[in-house]
Amino acid sequence: MSEKKSFLRKLARRKRKMALMDEALHVLFTRQCGEHIFALQGLWKNWERAVGGEIAALGRPAGHNGATLYLCAEDSMALQDLKMLSPEILRLANSYLGNPVFSAISLSLHTPAPQPALPIATPVPDRNAPPPLSPPAGFGFLLPELRKTFPDSPELRSYVAVMRYYGLFAE
Predict the structure, then answer these.
(1) pLDDT (0 to 100) of residue 130
(2) Exposure on the CB side of residue 14, measured as CA atoms within 13 A
(3) How far apart are CA 122 and CA 37, in angstroms?
């Protein structure tokens, strides 16, 4: 029976700690960003309902900095319309939030994210292509001496491979 009480006490403490962490995060976010930070998430998600379908079709929120609301428009005509409707957008956004959070609007054209540059393909060298350099003058004169002195050696095989590369050896 005492094990069950102990478990229930631990569970109650754990729940109390979780509630305290929730409160601590709320306090931290409100200190960092202001009391309106949680309401802004609702404004971003419900932009069309907050400002109306006609205005929402012209542009969408891109963020905020302090009391400035940033909006993006798809083209210059929509940008001009948003500029003319700025006081109305401010009034609608602030009324949706319930208090005057924004005092200015900054408008910009929405440009698609730049596409990553395609990697430049490096040509694969053709094994049968002629070598880019010509062999040094007199190259290959050691072959008869190497065959006599070091038959079946790695040095001889390497020398023959280099001669094949330059097209000087054919067996």
Answers:
(1) 66
(2) 6
(3) 51
Distance of alpha carbon 31 from alpha carbon 25, whole angstroms: 10
Q: Which fold has domain 9-109?
A: GMP Synthetase; Chain A, domain 3 (3.30.300)
Q: How far apart are CA 58 and CA 152, in angstroms?
A: 81
Mean pLDDT, rounded, of the chain: 78
Q: CA 94: distance to chain centroid?
A: 32
pLDDT at 11 over 90: no
Task: Judge whether 48 and 55 are in contact, CB under 8 Å.
Answer: no
* Residue 82 confidence (pLDDT): 92
Residue the block writes with tokens 């924004």: 102
> What pLDDT does residue 131 have?
59
Mean pLDDT confidence for 79-98: 92
Exposure letters 51-88 (e unless 16+ CB within 10 A, then b): beeebbebbebeebeeeebbbbbeeeebbebbeebbee
Reference 34, options 99, 95, 80; nearest CA is 99
Question: Is there a contact between 70 and 61 (Cβ–Cβ < 8 Å)?
Answer: yes
Give yes or no for a contact between 94 and 118, defined as CB atoms under 8 angstroms apart.
no
Domain-wise residue ranges, the chain? 9-109, 134-171
